[in-house]
């Protein structure tokens, strides 16, 4: 994408001042730049790789060296040998990559790319919650801060949560945080009680049960598929429930030709790409005036920000050494499970 320019900010110091102000490098360039082309060149010359989540804009997904769901990206981050990781995702994902592979420089194009689920679990409050159940094993969904990971016994993603919980002695009590919807889904699936933290994702809680049911009349042949971060009534009517990559695999192996999809709309790009003959319809949300099935945090990343962040190697994810060591152990336990 070629963009024209107004202002030059080409010194490291100016870039840093700009970053402190807005959380990303809001730089206008003095000449027209093809951000995609220049990003690819920089990636090569600086020995960098691009990791991107399925919820990114299609143009970013297409450029990624590693594209996938949270589990795949954590596994990929562990194996990266290049000097720099540019993470087109949200803050907790880039932080996880840094914790797993601490000698690499990890860049996040926009520091404001947060996550409502991670925000719903502040570490001071979670520490008090945990103290009420001293005998419990703490399982945390990867969508949380490094501080929460450091308070955990084992981490999981939506792809491996069942396996992680099954690996824990049946006689042990489990605290599951921060996503109560995923937690409830797992309790039902595994027939195992857990102590749940009351957190949720704004995107997956935005879907409308009533509108989805109405849509079944409009598309009687369609199958309804949902991410387990969605609320229970929605999951109860789904033909298939799975992580982002689970949903993508399902539509490829299943024989239906239409799907109503309840997860962040970015995944529809890959679904359409791998199944061009099928139709994918984003599940309707409660509020017709918003694009609520898009994660506003994920969508903060743009090609221009990707280019600027690699050019100036800012913003960089940095973490306290001790915190990294404590947060790494529960992630390693998850990765060891495969
Ligand atoms: P997965 O990538 O595990 O499907 O999780 C979805 C999500 O909400 C990421 O933020
Ligand atoms: Fe967080 Fe939800 Fe966005 Fe995923 S989709 S990053 S869980 S707010």
Question: What gyration radius follows from the Cα positions, in whole Å?
Answer: 20 Å
Q: Order of helices and strands, N to C?
A: EHEHEHEHEHEHHEHEHEHEHEHEHEHEHH
Biggest sheet details: 4 strands, parallel
Mean pLDDT: 94
The beta-strand count equals: 14
Strand order of the largest sheet: 4-3-5-6
Q: Compute the number of helices.
A: 16
Structural class by sheet pairing and helices: alpha/beta
Summarize the structure.
The chain is of the alpha/beta class.
Keywords:
338 residues, alpha/beta, 4-stranded parallel sheet, 14 strands, globular, binds 1,3-dihydroxyacetonephosphate, binds iron/sulfur cluster
Secondary structure topology:
Blueprint: E1 2-3, H1 12-22, E2 33-34, H2 35-45, E3 48-53, H3 58-63, E4 66-68, H4 70-79, E5 84-88, H5 91-100, E6 105-107, H6 116-119, H7 123-131, E7 137-141, H8 146-150, E8 154-156, H9 161-166, E9 174-177, H10 180-190, E10 195-196, H11 209-218, E11 223-226, H12 232-236, E12 240-241, H13 244-253, E13 258-262, H14 267-274, E14 279-282, H15 303-312, H16 321-336
Parallel strand pairs: 3-4, 3-5, 5-6, 7-8, 7-9, 9-10, 11-12, 11-13, 13-14
Antiparallel strand pairs: 1-2
The structure holds 1,3-dihydroxyacetonephosphate and iron/sulfur cluster.
Can you characterise this structure?
By secondary structure, this protein is of the alpha/beta class. 42% of the residues lie in helices and 15% in strands. The chain is built from 16 helices and 14 strands. The strands form four sheets. The chain has a four-stranded parallel sheet, sandwiched between helices. It starts with a strand and ends with a helix. 45% of the residues are buried. Mean pLDDT is 94; it is low at 4-8. Bound molecules: 1,3-dihydroxyacetonephosphate and iron/sulfur cluster.
């Amino acid at each position: 994408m070629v963009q024209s320019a107004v202002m030059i900010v080409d010194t490291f110091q100016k870039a840093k001042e700009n970053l402190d102000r807005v959380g990303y490098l809001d730089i206008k360039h003095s000449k027209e730049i093809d951000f995609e082309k220049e990003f690819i060149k920089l990636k090569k010359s600086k020995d960098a790789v691009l990791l991107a989540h399925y919820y990114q804009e299609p143009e970013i997904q297409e450029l990624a060296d590693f594209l996938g769901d949270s589990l795949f990206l954590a596994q990929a981050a562990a194996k990266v040998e290049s000097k720099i990781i540019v993470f087109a995702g949200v803050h907790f994902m880039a932080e996880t990559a840094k914790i797993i592979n601490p000698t690499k420089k990890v860049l996040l194009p926009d520091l404001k790319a947060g996550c409502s689920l991670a925000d719903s679990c502040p570490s001071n409050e979670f520490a008090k919650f945990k103290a009420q159940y001293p005998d419990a094993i703490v399982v945390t969904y990867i969508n949380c801060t490094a501080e929460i990971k450091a308070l955990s016994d084992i981490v999981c993603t939506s792809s491996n949560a069942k396996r992680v919980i099954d690996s824990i002695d049946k006689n042990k009590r489990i605290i599951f945080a921060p996503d109560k919807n995923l937690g409830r889904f797992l309790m039902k699936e595994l027939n195992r009680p857990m102590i749940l933290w009351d957190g949720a994702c704004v995107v997956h809680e935005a879907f409308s049960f009533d509108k989805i049911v109405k849509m079944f009349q409009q598309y009687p042949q369609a199958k309804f598929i949902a991410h387990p971060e969605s609320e229970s009534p929605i999951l109860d009517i789904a033909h298939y429930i799975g992580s982002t990559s689970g949903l993508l695999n399902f539509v490829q192996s299943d024989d239906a030709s239409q799907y109503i999809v309840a997860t962040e709309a970015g995944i529809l790009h890959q679904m359409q790409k791998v199944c061009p003959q099928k139709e994918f319809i984003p599940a309707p949300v409660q509020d017709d005036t918003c694009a609520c099935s898009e994660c506003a945090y994920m969508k903060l990343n743009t090609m221009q920000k990707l280019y600027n962040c690699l050019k100036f190697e800012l913003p960089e994810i940095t973490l306290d050494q001790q915190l990294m060591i404590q947060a790494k152990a529960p992630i390693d336990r998850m990765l060891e499970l495969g």
